Amino acid sequence: MSAAFDVRYTAQLARLNLSEEETAKFQAQLSQVLAYVEKLEKVDVTGVEPTAHANAVFNVFRQDVPRDWFTPEQALSNAPRSANQLFVVPKVIE
Amino acid sequence: MELTSLSVAGLQQKLRAKEVSPADTVRALEARIAQVDPQIHGYLSRDFDAALKLAESADVSLPLGGVPIAIKDVINVTGEPCTAASKILLGYRSNYDATVIRKLRAAGAIPFGRTNLDEFAMGSSTENSAFGRTNNPWDTSRVPGGSSGGSAAVVASHEAFASLGSDTGGSIRQPAALCGCVGLKPTYGRVSRFGLIAFASSLDQIGPFTKTVRDAGLLLNVISGRDPQDSTSLDEPVPDYTAQLGRDLKGVRLGLPREYFIEGVDPQVDSAVRAAIKHYESLGAEIVDVSLPNTEHAVGVYYIIATAEASANLARFDGVRYGHRAPDPTGLLDQYGRTREEGFGPEVKRRIILGTYVLSSGYYDAYYLRAQKVRTLIRDDFTKAFEKCDAIVCPTSPEPAFKAGDRSDDPLKMYLADIFTIAANLAGICGISVPCGFANVDGRQLPIGLQILGKPFGEAQLLQIADAYEQSTDWHNAQPTLA
């Protein structure tokens, strides 16, 4: 399976630019890690249910009531760019 | 005795007897930090004036009244930085308290100082911090373990009375072992994760570092409990975790998992842990053999599940709402790609890519779903073992602290440092590391940790078992010599 592993393509999916040097290095290092985790192929998991959370609880509800939280100023206080109580991002629609 | 050498319980006695004030305590810590932190680099930041202000109004009659507690720089504290030791969060300031911080404050504690970690808690040595590594107090050329290396090192070097860390695959227990202090990972769901920067949401749990087992109980008393803001926190009763301390161990059965006493464990670690088991026998505990047959798969399962969850959790770092943004983006994709390239360090990038890959179309079943199924087998191993014993004892780390730089560019080798701690996170059970001896390496004494694993929500008995060992041995009183 790890033969199909392509760092460049996967990094694109993750919206993460990589230098040429990093691409080559991670390709080698992560191929090694994948070869290690592929040992799991040999485990018989027939009929075994997957575990998503170790001590799982289901249907957790709380009262849907308004409460105080961030003011607009607080919500924007760490924004790299903001204006008119909004986050400013590069233009997305031509 | 120096004030900063006291345990939390010892400090409380002096505070309540009015022999010292909370402000004296904060000042004593500040002096100690100024003296030794240049060698340790356990702290990323601290606000002395803010802590002193809190100290002035502290109510010492409260459960942790007037006790300063250092916080891993991945837990939000209002008005303070929270960098996750990443350049991507440089300059960020929290606008809210994590639930554990709110609970600490309500109990009278003073959050003081932000401790170093591997970037986004990804690592086993604290070398992955974007702001420089933390040094082991017992030998500053060695690592303190990780990812909560700063939280462990500041307690071991008496720059803090106690601290909070987070444990996703051993990030509390392993640094506690390598630095020679107590580190407790609570059961998954025992402590709210609200306000903890998420790494792997199905594995992360916040817990304390302390000088004694009793202190760990005192902190757990305060931070435990169901929180409506974390739907995975469970509504289990919170007992007084110190109430069971001091009871004898007659009738207590301790399980020895044969898969944890294997070749590859450092001989000095192996003999220290075996000596601890003999000691338990002399205290009246019954030793039984148990088997955890799926142990060999734990590291593989962990690095699929943890990276998958991390790749999703770290998608929020996109340069829009907080943190670093690459300059002059030509469009949104360019902004995402370069912001994340510039902001994340190599280990975080590796894990995002691995996690994205195992979740990607065509590979999900082969990697992620299969890993979740093997996780069930690992969990079942513990359920079966706990039918035969009350707790499991084994080494925390296969070896004492390693030299800085030794494996920082060999991810697989670094991942294997967590071989004995990871399964507890996958199974969601609780675990603790307590000092159980020293290894003599190159003429230096390096701490060894004994790991004790308990049943889900079995922290009261876990602490009782750990305390019985600690109180009948002297290892926890040893102190590193710092110039």
UniProtKB/TrEMBL annotation, chain B:
One of its GO terms (cellular component) is glutamyl-tRNA(Gln) amidotransferase complex. SUPFAM superfamilies: Amidase signature (AS) enzymes. Heterotrimer of A, B and C subunits. PROSITE patterns: AMIDASES. Belongs to the amidase family. GatA subfamily. It is an enzyme of class 6 (ligase). Keywords: ATP-binding, Hydrolase, Ligase, Nucleotide-binding, Protein biosynthesis, Transferase. This is Glutamyl-tRNA(Gln) amidotransferase subunit A. Gene3D superfamilies: Amidase signature (AS) domain. Pfam families: Amidase. Its EC number is 6.3.5.7. GO terms for molecular function: ATP binding; glutaminyl-tRNA synthase (glutamine-hydrolyzing) activity; hydrolase activity; transferase activity. The lineage of its organism: Bacteria, Pseudomonadati, Verrucomicrobiota, Spartobacteria, Chthoniobacterales. The gene is gatA. Allows the formation of correctly charged Gln-tRNA(Gln) through the transamidation of misacylated Glu-tRNA(Gln) in organisms which lack glutaminyl-tRNA synthetase. The reaction takes place in the presence of glutamine and ATP through an activated gamma-phospho-Glu-tRNA(Gln). It catalyses: L-glutamyl-tRNA(Gln) + L-glutamine + ATP + H2O = L-glutaminyl-tRNA(Gln) + L-glutamate + ADP + phosphate + H(+). Residues 25-463 form the Amidase domain. The active site is at residues 72, 147, 171. GO terms for biological process: translation. It comes from Chthoniobacter flavus Ellin428. It comes from the Bacteria.
